Amino acid sequence: MATILLVEDNEMNRDMLRRRLEKRGYTVLIAEDGAQALESACAELPDLILLDMSLPVVDGWTAAANLKADERTRSIPVIALTAHAMDGDRQKAIAAGCDDYDTKPVDLKRLLVKIVAHLGEEGSV
Amino acid sequence: MEHPITKNQQDLCAALGSAVELIIRHATELTRLFTDKQQREHKEDAERILEAGRELQVFVVDMLGLLQNGESFAPLRHDIRNTVGLVSGYAEILEDEVSHQPPCLAELRGIQKSTSRFLNSLDELTALTSDEEKAPSVDELISSLSTTARSRSEATLGRKVLLVDDNDDNRELVCLQLNRLGIEVAEARNGHEALAALATKSIDLVLLDLMLPDINGYDLLKRIKQDKNWRHLAIIVISGVKDEQSAQRCLEAGASDYIVKPVNATLLRARVSSLLERKAWEDKESAYLSNLEASYDFIRKVFGRYLSNDVMQRLLYDGDGLSLGGERREVTILLADIRSFSVISQQLSPEDCVRLLNNYFAVMTDIIMSYQGTVDEFIGDGILAIFGAPLSDALHSDHAVACALAMQQAMPHVNEYNVESGLPAIDIGIGINTGPVVVGNVGSELRTKYGVVGHHVNIASRIESCTVGGQVLASADTLASMQATPQWRKTLEVNVKGSTEPLQIYDLTGIGVPFDIILPERNAPMVFLTEPVAISVRLMQGERLSQSAGLGRVVALNGRELLLELDLTLSSLEEVQLMLPEVGEESLAYARVMGADEANRYHVTLTSSVGVLRNLLEQRLA
């Protein structure tokens, strides 16, 4: 089963989403900010990264750009998550190198469809 | 003072508030349901939901505060969405884990329902509050709409519907539905309020309930349809009873549609949209038509000064009247110029100069138009008129010649005005030529002028430059094309650039029937002076003085014609500056050489009516 790196600074959000993903059978790794995310991604090479865009230390936009600049992590699909739900966020996320985009609050069914799409056969539950 | 928060925003905030309250109520109940120690983890999750719910409650209050201050709640929206996510996320987790406990499940489903309602209201509020902050869901929705649907939303946006219904709940419901289309709703609880609203507000559409407390809805419908200000309004009748006769009666009275209660929201929105769309098109069309009418009025006013009605008609209403490009056509060109205007204008203030020209142009334009000519251009003091275009005229050369003679005839009238107004008297010379030229709209899309181009225009100009005051000179081509009989006093030969053959021109004095214009004879015999008067003569080269100058004597005169004995050799049509040395610069005058006689004396005609020289000479007459 696929491993997902969840990058989220809000503890409750993190806990909630982790549990929901684990229920679906995914292995969930945690990072609390953009710097940890890059570190963890390089070390663990997850199958997919769920990246909250408003993060402390290094924000999601920068983290996404860094992940996509690094040869080791470049091929890992990144799904941006933002609660701003602003008009330009989607374009901004794609421009930063994210492979997909979803809004918070997370609609798990919708998010799972995207996760499965990016993971390919391996990700199907 | 007007509050920045709209009723609609208030409604949505209220909806958010009640959704949160329901979340809290269900979550509280849920925490009470997990009493077992084994269920401690579940209880913790339920408490998280409760905590998040309470947080949401604070956010909603904060948000209302921001809206009331007219501020954006965008920063808050981020936190709100995160917190809503917690509620629904934990609820979903619990739903999985307590699927065997129906009471808990019921609370959790209640929480999920309220959460999704909360999110819908939040999206609506966001879309309402600022265009820039459209949620992606809205964005996606819009981009997935077909183009017709999108143009429909443009048609409904900002439109005003008058809703006439005495039931408060009905009105609120319909208001909410129409607000979603961006439609502004004015409400009326009875017929009198409806009439008042119609009189004071600009309404695009009326939704009319037939059952009203004061006026019968059907009577109100008839009243609106009989008023000339409101007749155009689309009216949708909403009726409590499905009654075919009533429907027929309303439609016959002018209602656009008839809907039976309970009103299906989608159907209502579709009908309102389509009627508003039609109204938008009608408004556009009538605005376009009145714009067009105004433009035509403007064109008529401006060009009516120069163009005859026929020509205007052609330009305005002919399909291709204004397209660029010309056609080759035989026309007659008339050029009129005020003799020595540069000299005259130097002696006038700019205001007087304009006054003089305006009067002169006005008189001449009327004459030109009366002979079916078109004033193409005023060039300084010159007038360029075309005969035979834009409208064809088989008699263009006859008309041009008759027109020129009429113009000369009108000069005493012009000068009468000038003298009365303290302006100098003027003389004009007119040159006429006929030939094939290119006529049409010349220029760029932005600046277009109906004009005439070609060699024959230049010839007309050359002919005109040979005239003296009072003269009408026309080319042989013009005379050849005429049907009426011209009268001339003499012919001249002039050289034209680009032609090796000298051009034969006629000094016209009249035209026969049907025009029958004869200019008064100017060539009365010369009267000799008792004693010749010394005069200095200087040759002009265009507007400048040349070096060749000489002394001579005036021996005879007749009106503006002088007979000079000179030690200088002059050619025909050359322009000279004259001055009486004994008087000095005050006597400066200009003249054109008309020819030499057998005794080698020169005939010159004074071109500018600078009176001093003439008066002095006339005092010396025998």
Describe this structure in words.
Chain B: This is Class 3 adenylate cyclase/CheY-like chemotaxis protein. Chain B: The modification 4-aspartylphosphate is found at residue 209. The complex is a heterodimer of chains A (125) and B (622). Chain A has 125 residues and is of the alpha/beta class. Chain A has a single domain (3-123), classed as Rossmann fold, CATH 3.40.50.2300. Chain A is built from five helices and five strands. Chain A has helices spanning 11-23, 34-44, 60-69, 89-95, 108-119; strands at 3-7, 27-31, 48-52, 78-82, 100-103. A five-stranded parallel sheet of chain A has the order 2-1-3-4-5, with helices on both faces. The longest helix of chain A has 13 residues, at 11-23. The model of chain A has no long low-confidence stretch (mean pLDDT 84). With 622 residues, chain B is an alpha+beta fold. Chain B folds into four domains: 7-140, Four Helix Bundle (Hemerythrin (Met), subunit A), CATH 1.20.120; 147-282, 3-Layer(aba) Sandwich (Rossmann fold); 323-518, Nucleotide cyclase, GGDEF domain (Alpha-Beta Plaits), CATH 3.30.70; 527-618, Roll (Pnp Oxidase, Chain A), CATH 2.30.110.70. Helix content of chain B is 47%, strand content 24%. Chain B contains 18 helices and 20 strands. Chain B has helices spanning 7-33, 40-68, 74-97, 102-129, 136-144, 147-156, 168-179, 191-200, 217-226, 244-252, 265-303, 309-317, 341-346, 350-370, 396-420, 455-464, 476-481, 611-618, and strands spanning 160-164, 184-188, 205-209, 234-239, 257-260, 325-338, 373-379, 382-387, 428-443, 448-453, 472-475, 486-494, 503-511, 517-518, 527-541, 544-558, 561-566, 575-579, 589-596, 602-606. In chain B, the strands form three sheets. In chain B, strands 6, 7, 8, 9, 10, 11, 12, 13 and 14 form a nine-stranded mixed sheet that branches. In chain B, β13 and β14 form a beta hairpin. In chain B, α1 runs antiparallel to α4 (102-129) and α6 crosses α11. The radius of gyration of chain B is 45 Å and the shape is elongated. The chains are: A alpha/beta (125), B alpha+beta (622).
